[in-house]
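Open question from group meeting: does this chain pack into something compact, or does most of it stay loose? Before anyone orders reagents, we agreed to write out a predicted structure and look at it together. Recording both the input and the output here so the notebook holds the full record.
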Amino acid sequence: MKNLLNYKKVIYLCFLGLLVVLNVFCPRNVFSAVGVYEAIHFQGKVVNSDGTNVSDGNYNFVFSLYTVATGGTAVWTENYSSGNCGQLAVTDGVFSVDLGSCQSLSGVDFNQDSIYLGINFNGDGEMSPRIRFTASAYALNAKKVSGLTVTNTTGTLTIPNGVTIAFSGSNDLTFTTSGTTNATLPSGSITIVDTNTAQTLTNKTVGNTGLVFSGSSIDIDTSAGEGLVVQGRADSYFQTTGGNIILQPAGTSSTAVVKIGSGSGSNTPDLLALDVKNTSGDPTGADGYMYYNSVLGKFRCYQNGSWTDCVGASSGSSPFTSSSGVISKSNLTDKVNFTISESGDYGLLIDTSIAPAVDMLQISNSGYGTVTDGVDGLAINFSQASNANNTTNSAINLNITGSGDAGDVLSGLSISSSGISAGSLYGIKIGGITAGAGTEYALEIGSGWDRGLSVSSTSVFSSSVTAESSLVIGSGSDTFSFDPVSGPVFSGSARPSKSMVLSPEYSGAVLTDYYGAGTDTNINGIMTSDVGVGTGQSEYTSFYQWVRTSSTLHYYTVAVKVALPKDFSAWESSNSLVIKFATNSTSSSDNVFDVYIYDVNNSSTAIVSSTGNVSSTAGAFTTVSFTASSGLDDNSGVDWDSPGQVAIIYLRMGSQNSNWVRVSDIQVNYKAKF
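Structure tokens returned:
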């Protein structure tokens, strides 16, 4: 490992280097210095552990600055090696370097007395102890600027009396601080700018003595095209000790506007508050003057040579008169028009500041009954414009809020009247319209009401439906309608469910070898009708029974003609047609039940059929079920789907070896239209 020979000598050489560089930083003649070479010259000697000089050559050096004697993190490092600052030459063990010539020292804060230099020679590790920097004698001159004594007393920079600070050329003086900066000037006459040219004063704060102007016709002005903004941070005053305050935009040669606020409109507008006179009588005035008189509770305007009330004041008489707190219209020929030219929540507002004890708005012509056709107590002509927006509007919108107290009653619309001896009286009358392509509702009651329509028990609710109209309850395709000609009709989900049941012996049924799809030739057996229960069942049922004792399967058929009822609208979606049957055996080779259904006017194609049916439990009644979509009403081929339409149901039963077949109820399940 290499070491610095004669440690005290090396330290001494280091201090000499510091004396030189600090002398460079603080030359005796500041004004003669063109620039400062910001580097620290350092020289030292490196010897082997036996005291001999290291061989001449180029070596790696790493110089580091610390703010602590040991440990810590380097605040600056300069690496003299290949690829960095280049190696340093060592001759007779001596090396010389300008610290900061390769890696700038600008980031090091030398305004402290604890700067230490660490040296790492040729990768042997940093030498110990580190070398502490000290100042040279000439560095003490840093307390003076070209001979001027500059002192720092609790943050105050003091410059001797009679000294002028001058800036040559186009140099600007800028004070930069992260906190509050105060520039304190002594009392007396102080010239901040010259008086020969225009000067710019930016971000000026004026103290409690104010800012006083004198001797000029215009005290504050701006350059062309530049506005003037005066801003306060609390209540602000613009007042005079004598004379008027005149606001005259654009001068006297053109018309301009004095605005309070932006004038663009908002829900928090700026207000113009006029002064208030709290004694009777008017002040001296001139045309155009205005103020508020709190004794009269009115705005007063000076017009046409005298004071008058601003509201309702005109050169003619007012159409309104006031007496005992009531404002009345003077004659019935005058009209009051409200023209709304701006958007808002309302055109006319009647509001209260206390709970009202009287009607908030009353329209009455009591004692002056109308004798003219077309006169209305309240006429509203309200229309909606066509556009791309989905808008919802109402000619009258009643939004009511009940108290919720037991016994309280609140009505959105209350109509009361006395009966009449002749003529017609309508509480509400909805006139006729010309129907269009849209959907028109004369009356719609939304959801959530406990009673959609309530008629007093002491009243008679009657609906007079003429032959030209019908009453419809419901919406879309789900309605109940009453037509005065054809009667009531249900449609859609409003239709009730009904069932028609045929039980043996079916009315009009016949026994036949014909089963619709053909004719049986082997028909030896016994057909009977009886009543009983199925195996494992307790319900008695009537049935036809076919049984053959021999070992060959023979068939016989019960045929019944069925017409759909007159109120038939559609089949139920499931279990539309259900036929109850039972077989003695669960094997279709011993007994079997087939069903064929044909339209009475079409014997070539079956509407639906089901063959090979047996009980899943021997002797127990089960069912054959058909749905509308299975063929009864599938809009394919022949359907059985209209009132009065007749079909023949063929119930074909096959038996051998005394295994019987029984057929019981036929159930038709459908939606009724009335």
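Observations to bring back to the group:
The CA atoms of residues 262 and 649 lie 88 Å apart.
The radius of gyration is 57 Å.
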